[in-house]
């Protein structure tokens, strides 16, 4: 799985049903309450806590209807369905989401804070996008256009990447700024909606990354992206009159701002 290690550990515990759900705590005689605190209606096993509880069931139903219909008894069985179909990116999204819904459940159980499932899910997907962005290292560099000739020791590198979550009609943008030594200085992720083309996603990732650097007054950066199309378009100005022309112009403006 290509997810942060804390989510991998969570997934392992979830598959072993080793999380302290109300039902598990009752079985161990730690509490007498097996009913879910969020809905007060059903027994809280893990399946209920992260998928079938009211509020979040609607979320799953909209985006992964097959998952809700698939009446597997455990998270492990559900995960195996993705594995059997070799839908590994769906598996990553699945575990990111159940991890975020478990966090939401804990926030309510321990602090009585009720979080919006949609916001929580978007945060988790943003984290996944920025994780994947940081993981990629073999990127084509857009040196020609973005070269400001700083001395290496003062060089900061901005890796940008976009990830599409088709099932959720969402796009995640990840930005990681690193010191020349490889140390991460800053990482940011953002969820965008209504973005479809991969060119636009990549360009938007560059735009967001540059916007952030300009706002923070960070200079001497080298941007890396793995989209050859976008790199060439930025170097040659060939796309300024295309449907993405406005965004290309904005990126170039930010670059000029930095050079100046
Ligand atoms: Zn519930």
From TrEMBL:
PANTHER family: OS05G0353850 PROTEIN, POLYNUCLEOTIDYL TRANSFERASE, RIBONUCLEASE H-LIKE SUPERFAMILY PROTEIN. InterPro entries: RNase_H-like (IPR053151), RNase_H-like_dom_plant (IPR044730), RNaseH-like_sf (IPR012337), RNaseH_domain (IPR002156), RNaseH_sf (IPR036397), RVT-Znf (IPR026960). This is Reverse transcriptase zinc-binding domain-containing protein. Coiled coil: none annotated. Residues 159-255 form the RNase H type-1 domain. The lineage of its organism: Eukaryota, Viridiplantae, Streptophyta, Embryophyta, Tracheophyta. Residues 2-60 form the Reverse transcriptase zinc-binding domain. Signal peptide: none annotated. GO terms for molecular function: nucleic acid binding; RNA-DNA hybrid ribonuclease activity.
